[in-house]
From TrEMBL:
InterPro entries: Spore_Ger, UPF0353/GerABKA_families. Keywords: Membrane, Transmembrane, Transmembrane helix. It comes from Geomicrobium sediminis. The lineage of its organism: Bacteria, Bacillati, Bacillota, Bacilli, Bacillales. It holds the Pfam family GerA. Belongs to the GerABKA family. This is Spore germination protein. The chain crosses the membrane at residues 6-26, 38-64.
Length: 113
């Protein structure tokens, strides 16, 4: 007796989604991903892959526009700063990185070894 309401692939996708929801330990991040899942599913159901791409593009545009304490949210990627990309995607050794952050003033620069 097979009702044929949902496919086997859909069951696998829902199971993977349920298991992967436990990967993110931060509850705030988990809630954001859970809330963003619904517009993405609606876009996928309505427009297919193009809807998912457009919805993802809109989310990325919104993240680029955000600022936190006057600093762009996706800094140093969104306004591209090649000097500060050293620790963005790949973790470089500490001796390669600058020792002061954006919040410290210029008069407190540390000396390089």
């Amino acid at each position: 007796m097979n009702a044929g309401l949902i496919s086997n692939i859909m069951i696998i996708v829902v199971a993977i989604t349920a298991v992967s929801s436990f990967v993110i330990p931060n509850p705030e991040m988990s809630n954001v991903i859970r809330l963003l899942r619904f517009p993405l599913m609606l876009a996928a159901a309505t427009f297919g892959l193009i809807g998912v791409v457009l919805c993802t593009f809109i989310i990325v545009m919104h993240l680029i526009k955000l600022e936190s304490f006057g600093t762009p949210y996706l800094s140093p990627v969104a306004p591209l700063d090649r000097k500060k990309l050293k620790d963005t995607f790949i973790r470089f050794p500490m001796w390669v990185l600058e020792r002061n952050t954006l919040l410290t003033s210029n008069k407190h620069k540390s000396k390089k070894r």
